[in-house]
Amino acid sequence: MVLARTIHVFIKLIPAILALRKDRILWISQEGKDIDEKRFRRNAQRILNTCISLGPVFIKFGQWLSSRADILPQP
């Protein structure tokens, strides 16, 4: 059961993490200029939905993550 939950979590998180990483690289390379707002909003919604679907621990993780400007830059 623990292994199944771990696999489920990874299957849900990997696409969201990869999208976040890609957005961060794009944001850094363009120095925050000329960014595609729709893309960032879509990926932010994806991460929110992923955290909600995974449960309360991931909600707290999302809250912590949102407070870290060095990880998630302000729009």
Task: Explain what the structure shows.
The chain has 75 residues and is mainly alpha-helical. It has one domain. 76% of the residues lie in helices and 0% in strands. The chain has helices at 2-29, 37-54, 56-66. Helix 1 (2-29) runs antiparallel to helix 2 (37-54). The longest helix has 28 residues, at 2-29. The radius of gyration is 13 Å and the shape is elongated. The mean pLDDT is 80.
Secondary-structure-based class equals: mainly alpha
Which percent range describes the beta-strand content?
under 5%
Q: Outline the biggest β-sheet.
A: none
Q: Tell me the span between the first and last alpha carbons.
A: 39 Å
Q: In sequence order, what are the helices and strands, one letter per element?
A: HHH
Report the count of strand segments: 0
Low-confidence stretches: none
Helical amount: over 70%
Protein name: ABC1 atypical kinase-like domain-containing protein
Organism: marine metagenome
Summarize the structure.
76% of the residues lie in helices and 0% in strands. It is built from three helices and no strands. The model has no long low-confidence stretch (mean pLDDT 80).
